[in-house]
Please model this.
Amino acid sequence: MSACAAAGRSTFHEETTLNYNGQETWLMTTLTPLRDESGKIYRIVGSSNDITERKQAEAALQESQHFVQKIADATPNVLYLYDEIEQRNVYSNREITAILGYSSAEVQAMGSNLLPTIVHPDDLAKIPAYLQQLETAPDGEVLEWEYRIRNKQGAWRWLVSREVVFSRTESGKIKQRLGAATDVTERKIAEQALAEQLKLSVFTADVGIALTQNQTLRVILQNCCAAVVRHLDAAFARIWILNAEENVLELQASAGMYVRINGTHSRISVGHLKIGLIAKERIPYLTNEVLEDDRIGDKEWAKREEMVAFAGYPLIFDEQLVGVIAMFRARN
Model:
């Protein structure tokens, strides 16, 4: 009452008491000061409402939320709630730190920059089509999609998310989506390794068949170049054979975007250009930075054709140089 008198206005507070059965009861008590004609408080009147059920419901809700949070933190998946309207992450469990290195607070602090910052550009471009599919899905239907995320250390991780629409706007648009993301990086690496192994096995078989055919050397080499293009995603591949008398590499086969063998690079002196250097050094040469590589002479051509990678190998038989095989890979 003294607090009410000091405040000079109505006050509200919650308190506990024991009822006639000795059970704890929660009350919401209101105290109101009454004043005389001079404005002096001469009495304080009060009333109390039983709010025990509400307090019990609040306690049960808090306990339930704590239980759900314990489950969320124990799951090996990243659980998250993303708001499409506000373009931000609303919630994520602490597994996000174990998988990506970011804390929940760091993720939320990124705001609308979250997805452009951490999602691979190729996968970011696929999100609008995915969201359209999710938006038209019946409520409760789970959709799945794979994507890459850059973790805090800068490495790309493959994730699979299973999502449902958590809430919608009045017009039916997605407001929030709830998802569980699983790190499948190790599986993707294994799948890629298996695919590469299978591709190389088929490539080796094709080359083996080409080498055993009863054909001219030029036809055999042409079939080998075609196998490189077909199985190793090369833009084009070429084979030069050494003319030992003249110390010159002569182009014998070309497949892919260029098939002529009588052009500019039909004869290359050993030690000249990148092909000649491979022959001279007898060491393979590879680059994934064609436009920045000093050995790539025609940068304008490489830029125009969007060449991104080059690989060249000396062909050596019985410790003797036989020729050089080389390939370029384009961006698309």
Q: What stands out?
A: The first strand starts at residue 11 and ends at 18. The two ends are 80 Å apart (CA to CA). The chain has three domains: 2-58, 75-183, 189-330. The first helix runs from residue 2 to 7.
